[in-house]
């Protein structure tokens, strides 16, 4: 049986009028059916419903105003540098304030459009971009009619609510931004950390000093400087920790590839590197023992711990800064000096 006998259409379709199943020619175009019949809303029929909708919109705009004020107050009143709890509380309050500020305006605008503004369907024929004077006058009249239909002119409280919410909303972003712009721009502090000659390496977060004899081959330690919460830096120890965190690994010395000027920076296969990725500053802490690779979870930059923490994959462009270490008279691991270069990603005053 042929394909045509099976009912398969192998012939090209006609470019003329469509043909129905009976073989009769169909119309080449259909008449414009026009717009569907308009259905009035409850707010169109019932003035009480319109007033309720107006009050709802006003409440939503007022909620936006309260969110903006709350954001500014939270930014001013809740410091972020004193403790982790303060940081979490500040982030929570700022997030809630920003949400209410933006959500209030958005929800109010949507409810206003759905319940109070005109919902009559409109159709306009296409025309040249610039119309004649008569068309332009008609457009202006249509815009005026739309503004009148929205009710903003005769609803004073609603007008005040929308103006207040829209005018204050940028403050929820501008105040924190200006506060940060006016903050500490001394980037030179990134050149140095708490590490210095003789400062012991301690476990994070306990602060217990680490003996070299307790570090076995393949083991990984998250390290912070001894006395992190003491002395002049006690009030801002979180910032100091963020700069000074270290990942320490012990390898078989035979697996280490070390530059000539760094051969005394490790101790019997124990090496220490900054945990701050040189791409955008994420914490690098995923260590793969078999390959000696250290992975940044943010953008997958990969560093080879056995070869100077050089980049082997990903967007990072520089090796992790190394912390030169040795042991003291009691066998505890100590720093020989600060990192060999500024930690973290690039900035405009950095030479490397």
Automatic annotation (TrEMBL):
Domain annotation Rieske: ranges: 243-334
Membrane topology reported for the UniProt record: Multi-pass membrane protein
A GO CC term assigned to this protein in UniProt: plasma membrane
Listed cofactors: [2Fe-2S] cluster
CDD domains: Rieske (cd03467)
Pfam families according to UniProt: QcrA_N, Rieske
Biased segments, Basic and acidic residues type: 1-12, 37-49
Assigned keywords, A-Z: 2Fe-2S, Cell membrane, Disulfide bond, Electron transport, Iron, Iron-sulfur, Membrane, Metal-binding, Oxidoreductase, Respiratory chain, Transmembrane, Transmembrane helix, Transport
UniProt-annotated location(s): Cell membrane
Main location: membrane
UniProt key word Electron transport: yes
Transmembrane segments: 57-78, 90-113
GO MF term set: 2 iron, 2 sulfur cluster binding; metal ion binding; monooxygenase activity; oxidoreductase activity, acting on paired donors, with incorporation or reduction of molecular oxygen
Region of interest (Disordered), residue spans: 1-49
Record's function text: Iron-sulfur subunit of the cytochrome bc1 complex, an essential component of the respiratory electron transport chain required for ATP synthesis. The bc1 complex catalyzes the oxidation of menaquinol and the reduction of cytochrome c in the respiratory chain. The bc1 complex operates through a Q-cycle mechanism that couples electron transfer to generation of the proton gradient that drives ATP synthesis.
Family: Belongs to the Rieske iron-sulfur protein family.
Protein known as: Cytochrome bc1 complex Rieske iron-sulfur subunit
Organism per entry: Cellulomonas bogoriensis 69B4 = DSM 16987
Classification lineage: Bacteria, Bacillati, Actinomycetota, Actinomycetes, Micrococcales
